[in-house]
């Protein structure tokens, strides 16, 4: 009786459990009070319905399987009828009565302070477990820089020896970490730059003397809006950086290879373009030189054929002039003799005098001389044309020679005179030029193209000025017209083969490209300046001693 009174007044929760089924068979009154159940609530229910923490479940499972049930003062938790958890310290005993074995649970509820401590410890252990579960090294400092916490990953990363950790002297731990840096001062400065009470997050990369690379992030640790310290997390980026570096290197190598290939390709392309250009040039040259050669041959042939008859016409004309003078002298002598004759005899000459009068003998005598003179002049002109033709074509002399540029210009002007005369007056402003080493017939072709282009550019009437000049290295020839000019959009294309703005059939667009090629072969250049509506200037510059270099002949 007294026993049960004592037991009822104690705080202890007593439970009797069947070890085979884990069913609750008896509960002490204080037990029912503390847990908030009635006896009926609990009788027959498995103990795991109310001891339901994970560790309790493991324990009871072991007991059911016949494991050792005896434990002393072990923390456990009970699920109360109101849903709250009651922490207690329990002892389990196996007792035998009448051949049956029972389990007696004696559980002493923890004091509220103990409960709070236990809860705190559990939170802290959960936190620590979380900390340990991260793959990063975590270090927590307070606002004064004292170490509050760190995880094992942190001490492993830095290789902090156990005895140093055990001593818990922060300065030693920091010094140990600093020893990983070549420039310790820089490291300290860098560390000092992270203010422990700062609101900001930080990130930096640390290069350790052992070759590892750590990435360090830090952020403020707060409690109730107050910064209480700073959390540092360290991750080992060595491998990632190495892979990144490898990738960068590979990328750079790839880029290099691509660049090399591209360079090789563009070189090939340039070579192809160049050889294509040369081929085109050669083709045009061929075309033009064929044209030139046939014009030249024709001109030379015509000149040659005309030259022979002109030779004998000239000589005959000379003789004819002499004969005419002689005949006129004889006739004058006859007239003189007639006056000395007897008048009756003179009558016989009257029909002669009448004939002379009717035929206007006096005029005939005058005109005869005039005619012969004019014929001679005409013949001279034919001779000049023939000479110009020959000069212009210079057949058989597509060779380098020391030539007079003015002579070439003059013969070319004569050849193209028909094209120019109705369009323009030609003004010459010739300087004094030395002889130039060149292929004269080809230069004449250049001048011809420039002069014809100038004439074509003039609408109505205009002026073509031909200027020349030189310095000690080169001579220049300018063909200036007052024509329509070249629009800026065309200026870069006029030397392109087949570029023409002329009507179909009027221009082939080869004139300037040919001129360009010829001047290039002479190692010279062509410059062009044009103002639409005003006119155009083409300037040909030629080295005096062009290829192949030879001494100029002493006599002309
Ligand atoms: N003096 C100039 N004034 C204005 N335009 C010019 C002049 N010279 C050349 N050009 C322009 O340059 C183009 C090319 O000239 P290029 O001499 O090469 O060919 P083309 O005269 O058209 O034909 P062709 O093959 O018969 O000479 C001309 O069609 C013309 O548009
Ligand atoms: Mg032309």
Query: Overall mean pLDDT score?
Result: 86
The total of beta strands comes to: 17
Number of DSSP helical runs: 18
Radius of gyration, CA atoms, in whole angstroms: 62 Å
In helices, the fraction of residues equals 40-55%
Give the helix/strand class: alpha+beta
How many individual domains?
A: 4
Strand content: 15-25%
What's the end-to-end separation, in Å?
161 Å
Uncertain stretches: 549-556
User: What would you call the shape?
Assistant: rod-shaped
Question: Largest sheet at a glance?
Answer: 5 strands, antiparallel
Please describe what this structure looks like:
This protein has a 5-stranded antiparallel sheet with strand order 2-1-5-4-3. A 5-stranded antiparallel sheet has the order 7-6-10-9-8. The chain has a 5-stranded mixed sheet with strand order 12-14-15-17-16. The protein has 4 domains: 2-119, PAS domain (Beta-Lactamase); 134-236, PAS domain (Beta-Lactamase), CATH 3.30.450.20; 241-388; 398-543, 2-Layer Sandwich (Heat Shock Protein 90), CATH 3.30.565.10. The chain has 556 residues and is α+β, with helices and mostly antiparallel strands. Helix 10 (238-340) runs antiparallel to helix 13 (361-393). A hairpin with a 5-residue loop joins strand 3 and strand 4 (85-97). The chain contains 18 helices and 17 strands. Mean pLDDT is 86; it is low at 549-556. It binds adenosine-5'-triphosphate and magnesium ion. The site of adenosine-5'-triphosphate has 22 residues, from helix 16 and helix 18.
């Amino acid at each position: 009786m007294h026993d049960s009174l004592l037991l009822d007044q104690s705080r202890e929760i007593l439970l009797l459990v069947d070890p085979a089924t884990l069913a609750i068979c008896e509960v002490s009154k204080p037990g029912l009070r503390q847990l908030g159940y009635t006896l009926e609530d609990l009788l027959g229910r498995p103990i795991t319905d109310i001891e339901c923490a994970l560790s309790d479940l493991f324990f009871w499972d072991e007991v059911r399987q016949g494991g050792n049930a005896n434990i002393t003062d072990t923390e456990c938790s009970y699920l109360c009828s109101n849903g709250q958890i009651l922490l207690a310290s329990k002892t389990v005993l196996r007792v035998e009565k009448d051949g049956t074995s029972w389990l007696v649970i004696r559980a002493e509820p923890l004091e509220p302070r103990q409960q709070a401590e236990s809860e705190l410890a559990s939170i802290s252990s959960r936190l620590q477990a979380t900390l340990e579960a991260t793959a990063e090294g975590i270090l927590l400092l307070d606002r004064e820089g004292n170490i509050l916490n760190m995880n094992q990953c942190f001490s492993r990363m830095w290789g902090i020896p156990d005895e140093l950790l055990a001593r818990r002297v922060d300065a030693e731990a920091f010094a140990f970490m600093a020893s990983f840096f070549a420039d310790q001062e820089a490291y300290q400065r860098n560390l000092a730059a992270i203010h422990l009470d700062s609101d900001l997050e930080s990130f930096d990369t640390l290069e350790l003397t052992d070759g590892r690379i750590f990435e360090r992030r830090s952020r403020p640790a707060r409690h109730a809006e107050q910064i209480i310290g700073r959390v540092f997390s360290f991750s080992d980026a060595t491998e990632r950086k190495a892979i990144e570096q490898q990738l960068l290197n590979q990328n750079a190598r790839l880029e290099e290879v691509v660049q090399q290939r591209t360079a090789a390709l563009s070189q090939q392309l340039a070579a192809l373009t160049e050889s294509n250009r040369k081929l085109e040039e050669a083709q045009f040259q061929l075309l033009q030189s064929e044209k030139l050669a046939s014009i030249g041959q024709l001109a030379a042939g015509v000149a040659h054929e005309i030259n022979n008859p002109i030779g004998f016409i000239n000589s005959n004309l000379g003789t004819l002039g002499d004969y005419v003078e002689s005949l006129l002298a004889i006739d004058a002598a006859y007239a003189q003799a007639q006056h000395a004759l007897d008048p009756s005899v003179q009558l016989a000459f009257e029909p002669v005098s009448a004939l002379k009068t009717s035929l206007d003998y006096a005029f005939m005598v005058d005109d005869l001389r005039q005619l012969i003179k004019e014929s001679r002049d005409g013949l001279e002109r034919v001779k000049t044309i023939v000479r110009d033709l020959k000069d212009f074509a210079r057949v058989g002399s597509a060779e380098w020679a020391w030539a007079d540029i003015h002579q070439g210009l003059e013969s070319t002007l004569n050849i193209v005179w028909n094209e120019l005369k109705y369009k323009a007056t030609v003004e010459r402003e010739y300087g004094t030029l030395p002889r130039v080493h060149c292929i004269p017939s080809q230069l004449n072709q250049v001048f011809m193209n420039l002069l014809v282009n100038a004439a074509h550019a003039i609408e109505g009437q205009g002026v073509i000025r031909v200027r020349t000049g030189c310095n000690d290295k080169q001579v220049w020839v300018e063909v200036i017209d007052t024509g329509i000019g070249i629009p800026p959009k065309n200026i870069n294309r006029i030397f392109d083969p087949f570029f023409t703005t002329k009507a179909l059939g009027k221009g082939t667009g080869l004139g300037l490209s040919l001129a360009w090629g010829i001047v290039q072969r002479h190692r010279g250049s062509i410059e062009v300046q044009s103002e639409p509506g005003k006119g155009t200037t083409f300037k040909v510059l030629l080295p005096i001693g062009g290829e192949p270099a030879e001494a100029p002949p002493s006599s002309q």
